[in-house]
Design a protein that fits this description.
The chain has about 425 residues and is mainly alpha-helical. It has 19 helices and no strands. It has a single domain (about 15-410), classed as Up-down Bundle (Growth Hormone, Chain: A). It comes from Rheinheimera tilapiae.
Length: about 425
């Protein structure tokens, strides 16, 4: 076996369930990005919501997903991955079908809340399942890198297909997302058909018997993990401005041909990750994961400075800033998952990946706080503040290795 994470030999030996995760996420996220990035525009143009109102509702919905994702990861450790993943797929079918049909503001808001749940129910159990399937740490890193790659490949294709089909900004495009979740659920049921996966591979048996209160107590004792959670909450808060606050800023600045700019920003972001993620992994593969994360945070900070200084009407300037952010993202986010996998005990992968849903607090608060800052101070101030927060993130990562961790051996956990 090659010592390199990225090798053709490793790719060829990935089992069928891993490929289901990779291709399933590609199609789900591709259909999702046909329409979801335009949701802030829909709420503004159709229902005349202010930046603060839009931010409040998107934030509230995302916070619900944080709670659901945290608990879903714990449940997957106790009762197996399959029930939670199937629940996520079914919820996706129902939620996005309802979102496509919503025609009043109250109904639209209810559907937005429901539509945040599928990914929350799916994310932690599916990532933990990859760990169950792949005992070798380099195989797991390759799979997690590949998962992030396929999500962004879908995001690159989604806006292009949405524009081609006339779906960008059209809520009926959510039917395609619903169909993608349905196909993902059927693929999972096919893999779990009798005789296909044995119980150990499928993780149909509990990994531990610790209740949720005991898991919370354990996580409170893990000071290193707590600081990493804080740092990654801030990373998501900063990054999310590109998905929400930046779009609101450009919308209210009456940027000409706004839909084309938004689609271009999403495509630049995703295409750079598609073309650069694995070359960057090859280039930086000999670096410790923490150093890769440091580099990603520095590039994220530089992108925020560019956003702050860019003239509102300079189309190519926005794309250039997004390119810097995207290179940082290609390094940063996949390695955050790899780092989390390194921190988690094998029997607690679901709980740790579930706790990592707390990262989304930053993503959730970003539209609300970003909207408030936009209304009060304007876009340049918002991005300047975000650049300053990147320095705080670097400080958290520098401090974390000196902090205390629990004694997992005392818990007599399997694995």
């Amino acid at each position: 076996m090659s010592a390199q994470v990225l090798s053709w030999q490793r790719v060829k030996q990935l089992p069928a369930p891993v490929w289901l995760m990779l291709w399933g996420n590609f199609f789900v996220r591709g259909s999702y990005f046909m329409v979801w990035p335009f949701l802030a525009v829909i709420l503004y143009q159709r229902y005349d919501l202010s930046a603060t109102e839009t931010g409040f509702w998107l934030t509230s919905a995302a916070l619900l997903a944080v709670v659901a994702g945290f608990y879903a990861g714990h449940l997957s450790d106790r009762f197996g991955r399959k029930p939670l993943m199937l629940a996520g797929a079914l919820t996706g079918v129902l939620a996005f079908s309802a979102l496509a049909l919503a025609d009043t503001l109250p109904l639209m808001l209810c559907c937005i809340f429901l539509a945040t749940l599928p990914r929350a129910l799916w994310d932690a159990p599916s990532k933990a399942w990859l760990g169950d399937l792949l005992p070798d740490s380099k195989d797991r890193e390759l799979a997690l890198q590949g998962l992030y790659f396929m999500v962004n490949a879908g995001a690159a294709c989604g806006p292009v297909l949405g524009l081609w089909a006339g779906l960008s900004g059209n809520p009926h495009g959510f039917f395609i997302t619903a169909a993608s979740y349905g196909a993902l659920g059927l693929g999972l049921m096919w893999l779990y058909r009798p005789g296909k996966l044995d119980s150990s591979t499928a993780n149909s048996r509990p990994s531990h018997t610790l209740n949720f209160a005991a898991i919370l107590q354990l996580l409170r004792q893990d000071q290193l993990f707590a600081v990493i959670i804080l740092a990654n909450i801030l990373i998501n808060f900063i990054y999310a401005h590109a998905d929400s606050s930046l779009i609101q800023y450009l919308t209210r600045a009456d940027f000409p041909d706004l839909v084309t700019l938004i689609s271009s920003l999403v495509m630049v972001n995703s295409l750079i990750i598609v073309t650069c993620q694995f070359p960057l992994l090859r280039l930086l593969g000999h670096w410790p994961v923490i150093k890769r994360i440091h580099l990603g945070v520095v590039l994220l900070g530089l992108s925020q400075i560019w956003f702050a200084l860019n003239p509102v009407d300079w189309f190519w300037g926005w794309l250039g800033a997004m390119a810097v952010l995207s290179i940082g993202e290609a390094i940063l986010f996949a390695n955050m998952n790899v780092h989390l996998d390194q921190l988690a005990h094998p029997a607690l992968r679901g709980s740790y990946f579930g706790a990592a849903s707390l990262y989304a607090i930053g993503y959730s608060l970003s539209p609300l706080i970003g909207g408030l800052i936009l209304d009060a101070l304007g876009g340049p101030a918002l991005f300047a503040i975000s650049a300053g927060l990147c320095a705080l993130v670097l400080g958290c990562y520098a401090t974390a290795p000196r902090l205390r961790r629990p004694d997992f051996s005392a818990l007599k956990l399997p694995g």
